[in-house]
């Protein structure tokens, strides 16, 4: 984090450590929340690739329903036409709802990719045993939701959201720590005076004399004759 000329100071190191701890806690919270939500779907497979079978729907759930699935090698409409669902107690023929929705997400189970055929809801006052026959292997998943499971989903989802927020806070602290590192590095570089290379160029020769002005007297040279004994004139 403190590479590239950045020098970490003590506050930056503390923020880095705190951010790492908070991010780790957030990841743990997120994993726990997601695991709680995913655990609801475990052990929900009521029928595993059978053609003739029975399943039961009872009370006590907010939504009583099962999900019919088909293998990826079978056309959904063809599989749907081959299904026969009969209420054993009343001998009433039942049918699926929301059939062959291509937007539904596939389900992976034991190495197979399964797609939704439709959802079967328990008829009003018609809980009990249902007999099913089909020309193709069929998978049935319990899609019932109880109050306890709704609370688990809400709690797990909230934990996942809280975990995500905590991870975000940890990342923000890391960014702040990185900024502190870089600022500390820049201050350390600014404190050093830049080196001065070379000296001022030397000055060669003397400055020319300046003219002061005014007339100057020229020197006068007096040439004399030698003095000796000369004849006197009368």
Radius of gyration computed on alpha carbons:
50 Å
Distance between the termini: 129 Å
Which regions contain 5 or more consecutive residues with pLDDT less than 50?
3-7, 146-150
Q: How much helix is in the residues?
A: 25-40%
Individual helix count = 3
Overall mean pLDDT: 70
Largest sheet: 7 strands, antiparallel
The SSE order reads HEEHEEEEEH
Structural class: alpha+beta
Multimerization state = single chain
The total count of strands amounts to 7
β-strand percent reads 15-25%
Mass-distribution shape? elongated
How would you describe what is shown here?
This protein has 234 residues and is an alpha+beta fold. Among the domains are: 10-33 and 150-189; 45-142. Helices cover 35% and strands 24% of the residues. Strands 1, 2, 3, 4, 5, 6 and 7 form a seven-stranded antiparallel beta sheet that branches. Strand 3 and strand 4 form a beta hairpin. Helix 1 runs antiparallel to helix 3 (147-191). It is elongated. Residues 3-7 and 146-150 have low confidence and may be disordered.
Write a compact overview of the structure shown.
This protein has 3 helices and 7 strands, in the order αββαβββββα. By secondary structure, it is of the alpha+beta class.
List key phrases describing it.
disordered N terminus; seven-stranded antiparallel sheet; 3 helices; 7 strands; 234 residues
SSE layout and pairing:
Blueprint: H1 10-39, E1 45-57, E2 65-71, H2 76-82, E3 84-87, E4 92-94, E5 107-109, E6 112-121, E7 128-142, H3 147-191
Antiparallel strand pairs: 1-7, 2-6, 2-7, 3-4, 3-7, 5-6
Helix pairs in contact: 1-3
């Amino acid at each position: 984090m403190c590479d590239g000329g950045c020098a970490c100071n003590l506050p930056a190191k503390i923020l880095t450590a705190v951010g790492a701890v908070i991010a780790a806690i957030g990841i743990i919270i997120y994993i726990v929340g997601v695991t709680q939500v995913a655990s609801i779907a475990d052990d929900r497979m009521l029928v595993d690739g059978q053609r003739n079978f029975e399943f039961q729907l009872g009370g006590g759930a907010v939504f009583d329903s099962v999900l019919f699935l088909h293998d990826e090698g079978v056309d959904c409409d063809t599989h749907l036409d081959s299904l026969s669902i009969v209420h054993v107690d009343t001998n009433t023929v039942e049918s699926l709802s929301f059939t062959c929705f291509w937007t539904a997400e596939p389900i992976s189970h034991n190495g197979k990719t399964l797609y939704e055929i439709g959802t079967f809801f328990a008829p009003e006052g018609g809980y009990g045993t249902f007999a099913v026959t089909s020309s193709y292997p069929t998978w049935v998943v319990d899609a019932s939701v109880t109050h306890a499971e709704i609370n688990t989903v809400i709690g797990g989802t909230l934990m996942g959201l809280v975990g995500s927020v905590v991870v975000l806070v940890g990342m923000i602290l890391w960014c702040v720590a990185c900024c502190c590192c870089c600022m500390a590095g820049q201050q350390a570089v600014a404190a050093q005076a830049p080196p001065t290379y070379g000296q001022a160029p030397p000055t060669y020769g003397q400055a020319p004399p300046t003219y002061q002005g005014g007339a100057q007297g020229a020197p006068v040279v007096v040439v004399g004759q030698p003095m000796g004994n000369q004849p006197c004139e009368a």
